[in-house]
Predict the structure.
Amino acid sequence: MGLLRTATAPVRAAGGDAFRAMTDETGRGPRGINDEAPAGADPYTAYDDFTLPSYVGLPSFQKLPWVTDAAALAERRPDVAIVGAPFDDAVSHRPGARFGPRAIRQASYHAGAINSLPLGIEPYDWLDVVDAGDAPVTPMDIERGHAVIRRKVLDVARSGAVPIVLGGDHSITFPSASAVAEAVAPRRLGIVHFDAHADAANSTWGNLRSHGTPMRRLIESGAVSGRNFVQVGLRGYWPGAETLDWMAEQGMRWHLMSEIEERGAEAVIADAIAQALDGPEVIYLSVDIDVIDPGMAPGTGTPEPGGMLPRELLRAVRQVVGAVELAAMDVVEVAPPFDHAEVTAAAAHRCILEAISALAARRRETGASPIGHREAVSDTSAGG
Ligand SMILES: [Mn+2]
């Protein structure tokens, strides 16, 4: 392969378009930023929404089709569906994560087909991925917000899709993982949870639904057993001994950041996977972006110095999703008002691409056939 052009996209020899590549030799229309529309195509319609630049058109995740209606999801049965949970009424400190889903969706310069270099796969060749839109959250009502997030995630999970939920503060993991536990029953759910914080307090200033308490609610409610709730990346100065004692009583397992420093992330995460799957069949992966060092992910509500590198977290997501049956995932606590140069939103976005790519690689490993390159994706029948 040449350094400046691909073998399937030769440069025209002459004419006004001498430095533009032609449609590839298979005759396919454009499916990415390096494919030109067919000769003679009307420039107005030459590129569909999927292949237009990421900053043009509908801001769905990766320009994937919006399929927001529960009945349309049930009919289509996508493999993966992005869900927004734009909710931050339950934060204890800096707010802003309600803007997380928008920021994560737009933190991409890619349009059209994408190719995972570490996994060697074009994920949209193997998986039907859609954007199911946002839960219809309104502010100033935690119970209502959690209720609509739970219903939205349940609609997606019941369609057979793997929900990938964009937070939102971490309180949304309580309704989200509860919905997933309900959808996968009677199979049992384990949780692998990346975070600087345990989020297993009983209450925050008396509120049981804060972003410091969702893990306790999930265990108390029976959605997941404590011994299959495994945390990675904890550090800093919280929680106190009383909460840690409660966690130990539940059989929760946690891996401090200092253990990653000593043993390396890969070995620690291998243990976390085994512990989460010690009984359950499927995994919910919850990624609080504050597990990354705030120097590299400043846009978050409760930054805690001394965290993981983005490259460690991206590798960890590939490791987890490559090793388990993933029931759902969330990426939470991206607070764009505190972000700089979109670095936090970009890290969150890439966590999701890593998960989608690892899911695609697992599909390929089963011997399944590719679903083919995504063509026109404007799904006007799917509604809002
Ligand atoms: Mn958290």
